[in-house]
UniProtKB/TrEMBL annotation:
Protein name stated in the entry: CAAX prenyl protease-like protein
Species lineage: Bacteria, Pseudomonadati, Bacteroidota, Flavobacteriia, Flavobacteriales
InterPro entries, alphabetized: Rce1/LyrA-like_dom
Residues passing through the membrane, by range: 32-52, 72-91, 124-141, 147-169, 176-197
UniProt keyword list: Hydrolase, Membrane, Protease, Transmembrane, Transmembrane helix
Residues of the CAAX prenyl protease 2/Lysostaphin resistance protein A-like domain: 72-188
Pfam families listed in its UniProt record: Rce1-like (PF02517)
GO MF terms held by the record: endopeptidase activity
Signal peptide per UniProt: none
Example GO biological process: proteolysis
Length: 306
């Protein structure tokens, strides 16, 4: 059975979930696991594209998971291991009637056998558990409003689909495979963050006036923070070197106002070198930063005097 056939099996499950387990080898289950994860990330990528298209509407919504940095290994523990374990116990383990002890306890109280009801309505039950799993991730965001809830199916679309994939693993291959799928999903996200955002240097601007480089920091470092600014009396910057520094803190240092707020907790190394003796204006630097980083809309703020 190839990748396309395995995806077709997943799609058939999505259309009509059932709890009839596969009679296949461990190796075949492993191939289903890999195929399911690949399928999951293909769909997730589509939602990433949709979110990027809707970026002007998404600007106010801050993911609180980005508010604090953790070390790489602490991120593995807090993102790859503990949440999947807890979420799978809540949202996938009970999908088997024999393992849904809450439902069976209710049946015991009423002196009834609800297993027939469970089988008859399993499709709805899987959809409800998957939807709850997906929409509960809305709690990762603040500054919610009507537009946010209208966009909710897109914002957590990847989680909604992942919930169905993990349900497939649970019902067709077993709870351990749902755990492995969830672990793998989150671990891949961590590794992608490490490869594409951590210690990745990019040039923000390099022209006749200035050279500005930034290196993103996605995971907490033990390196000390350092900020060195060489500027002229008019405020223009000759040289700036920020190491392991919060972008928000850098903005506070440079502009002394509470009207400039970064949406996410961007940590970086930033280097600026002016190629002209008159230096580089801070207003110009701000425009460059606004091109690459997301600023919150702040109103009714009071500027501070330098």
């Amino acid at each position: 059975m190839g990748f396309r056939a395995r995806v077709n099996s997943i799609n058939n499950f999505i259309k009509r979930p059932n709890d009839i387990p596969f009679s296949i080898s461990t190796w075949e289950k492993f191939k289903f696991l890999i195929s399911g994860i690949i399928y999951d990330f293909i769909v997730a990528f589509i939602f990433v594209i949709l979110i990027s298209i809707l970026e002007p509407l998404m600007t106010p919504y801050e993911n609180i998971l980005n508010s604090e940095l953790y070390s790489f290994w602490k991120s593995i523990l807090l993102i790859t291991i503990l949440p999947p374990l807890l979420e799978e116990l809540i949202f996938r383990f009970p999908l088997k009637y024999k393992r849904n002890y809450v439902f069976r306890f209710i049946a015991y109280l009423f002196k009834s056998d609800f297993s027939g009801f469970w089988r008859k309505h399993l499709r709805i039950i899987v959809y409800l558990f998957s939807a709850t799993f997906g929409f509960i991730h809305l709690s990762n965001y603040n500054n919610v409003d009507l537009v946010f809830f209208m966009l909710a199916p897109i914002i957590v679309g990847a989680q909604l689909f992942a919930g169905i994939i993990f349900s497939f693993f649970r019902l067709k291959m077993g709870f351990v495979w749902a755990l492995l799928g969830h672990f793998s999903h989150n671990f891949i996200l961590i590794m992608m963050s490490f490869m594409f955002f951590h210690n990745v240097e990019r040039s923000l601007l390099d022209d006749d006036e200035v050279k500005i480089e930034a290196t993103g920091i996605a995971f907490k470092l033990d390196n000390p923070t350092r900020l060195t600014i060489d500027s002229l009396q008019n405020g223009n910057i000759l040289c700036l070197d920020a190491q392991n520094y919060s972008l928000q803190k850098l903005l506070d240092e440079l502009y002394r106002t509470d009207t400039l707020r970064i949406r996410d907790n961007d940590q970086l190394n930033l280097k600026l070198y002016s190629k002209k003796e008159e230096g580089y204006a801070k207003d110009q630097l701000l425009e460059v930063l606004k091109e690459f980083y997301t600023f919150k809309k702040v109103t009714d703020s009071i500027s501070k005097n330098e």
